[in-house]
Each structure stands twice: as C-alpha cells, then as structure tokens.
Request: fold
Amino acid sequence: MNTESPIGVFDSGVGGLTVVKEIMRQLPGENMVYFGDTARVPYGSKSKNTVLKYSRQIVQFLQTKEIKAIVVACNTASALALDEIKREVAIPIIGVVEPGARMAAESTKTNSIGIIGTESTIKSGIYSKFLRNINPEITVVSRACPLFVPLVEEGLLEDRITDDVIERYLHEMKEYGIDALILGCTHYPLIRNAIKRYMGGEVHLVNPAYETAKSLKLLLAEQGLLNQSGNSAMYEYYVSDGVDKFSTFAAKVLPCHVEPAVVVDIESY
Ligand code: DGL
Reply:
C-alpha cells in the first residue's frame, strides 16, 4: 500500500456513484475501486445485522485491491455498519452521515433541519444524533422516502410521478419551516431539482457527498496519503450482478468514460 493505492468506495448499488462523482471532482488525482452490491440492493429496508454482514464482505473484497482508505458511500451502511467496521480495519475509513450532518448544521439559520433517507437510516436516528451533538438547539424532522430509490433507478428524474411522490412524502415537512434538508440517501441528489422545486428556494438542500469528499481530502492529507504522482487517475468498477444496468446508470452519472464493471461473487468473502 502506498499513496498511489486506490481508495475503495462502496454502496448497496449504483447510488454511491454520486459520491464517486464528487470525489473525482475534488480529488482528481486519486485512483478508485468501486463496489456496488447490485445483487443485494436495497439495504434501506434491511436489518442492522444483514447490512453489517454485507458491508464486512465488501470491505474484505476491497482489501484484496490494496486500497489505502475506504469510503462507505451509502447512507444506510454508514448508519448501521460504520462504527463496527471502523474498529475492524487498519486503514482510514469514512462514511457519508457525519460529514452530511456537519454541513447541515453549518448551513441552517433557523436550527430547523429536515432529513430524508431510507427506512433503516431514518429509524437509526443517526443524523439526529450527530446534529444534536453539534448543536443541541437543532430541531429535526425526518421522513423515510422508500419510493425515491426505484424512481431514480428507473430514470424518472423529471417526471410527474416523481413530483407526486415528492409531494406525498414532503408536504408535512414543508409546513415545519425547515431551512435545510439533508438528502440522506445516495440516490436523492439525482432528483434534487424536483425536490428543490417543491420545497422552494429558501430550503438549502444538503448533499452529503460534497462534504464527504472534502473530509476525505483532509483525512488523506493528515495521514500523508494524498496521491501527488501527477498520473491520470484510474477507476475500476465491481458489482455483484447486473453489469449492463450498472453501466447505463454510471454513464449517466459520471463525467468520464466508464470501464465495464466486473462481477464479483461477494458471498464468498
Ligand atoms: N444507497 C442507499 C443509501 O444511501 C440507498 C439504496 C438502498 O436502499 O440500498 O441509503
């Protein structure tokens, strides 16, 4: 392992590519290995034990790629598995929840913050916990939005059905007068325009991916792990199923040519 070693990034499927995109933007010199658990997605309705087992298997796999750090680019896995995995690996590891909470706490003026995410992330209460640790005055209103993930995966980013579902999930939150809304699921930044239209310009939408890439940069710098070779970055993609669907989605999200993904038998790790 050295500074040119890749960063391992994983998610339950394709959503983590929104985090990859932000890492590519803020850390253009870093090599990355991405794993999307496309065979076992969604994680958002699964138990802590299951998400922890899956995350451990993925970390085992990524470690075969000589990675120098890990980004858990999945809110659900960050909420349910990160604490345990942190104790088990010797390399730096970060998730998306803490950076997202920090960014929301910095951006609110009314101390009234909304959080949307998968059922498991919302049930874990983790965003609220981090927010209240940062500022006990903050009040939080949260809502699980399970239908957003399939809508995004179907490519319905600008569609009347998506607008209807947004209204159904967010109309109560709109009445609370929040001024910041955490997009606490990797898929949600892809429908941010539709959410913004509904919530109005005065509600700041917080994309944890941005702050995660920023935290990653700081962490690598602190540990002397930034890749300063000047070589162009290399990216590898692995999935547990559905290579074609992954490629189509990746080509839409990422700003560069995407090499075909390779299927991994993740259950064997
Ligand atoms: N990647 C997941 C998250 O950010 C959403 C998809 C899923 O439920 O697995 O929580």
